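Board notes (copied after class):
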Amino acid sequence: MKKILVTGSVGQIGSELTLALRKKYGAENVIACGHSKRPSEELLGSGPFEFMEVRKYDEVKSVIEKYDVGVIYHLAALLSAVGESNPQLAWDINVNGLMTVLEIARNYNCSVFTPSSIGAFGPSTPKNGTPQDTIQRPTSMYGITKVSGELLCDYYYSKYKVDTRGLRYPGIISYVSPPGGGTTDYAVDIYYKALENKKYTCFLKSDTKLDMMYMPDALNAAINLMEADPSKLKHRNAFNVTAMNFTPEQVTASIKKRIPEFKIDYSIDPVRQGIADSWPDYMDDSTARKEWGWKPVYNLEKMTDDMLKNLSLKLNIKY
């Protein structure tokens, strides 16, 4: 079979997606790539790893040719809050890096998965039940790069017939990877702090409602989309997908059912609050459900049970 390349494999989604792909397709068939951050021993020990800069065509070309790659999961990117602190670098990595990957895909006949985000929407987008096709005027550099990425992928499909596919992810929650600089990262960190300190200081307002997804659903969504029958895909870049939506107040209530002494207070970060306020309350993902059978497994209560169970083992803390 043609090999699979995962860029950004040391990141939050990439680290877990790489392992899921290796389990499904065989460790030797999935090549993990990163730029500078050292990968985990599990990632290094479970299959091939290459250090590679996605903005450098020759470096990507070398890996593609070395392993005869046919599918690229392109996850290398800067997240929302980090992108606001260095917008020029966010554009360079998120857009120019994607352009390099798309050119490689065009020249080497690769299919490409690229995640977009709820951040691709802005304050003028309908907030409740955000449609698949709607106005996209984001106010963050991260969001601007995601809209640009969606358009670039559509362009390469329509002009060059590159098999590009993508998802608009909501906030992703995982017990494996620590928070990585995103606006929705409170929903990861809150579980750590609930076990470690029984207290959490949240950087978003208590009633800030955002779409969220548990990592197992996020991984299945990416893999299932890439395995979908292309003849059924009227859309490609990118599908709205979500699993649940909640506020800091609501996730706190869910945790308190399991850890009654848990408390939360608030110290609002105006940058991340501003980003969150510009995003939808929840997206309409009926198009993904119709075109390729998207269906999440986890809701808030099921996720809270799984997060606390696994984090308590990871941190060696009973609750």
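Comment from the instructor: The first strand starts at residue 3 and ends at 7. The chain has two domains: 3-170+215-240, 172-212+243-282+295-315.
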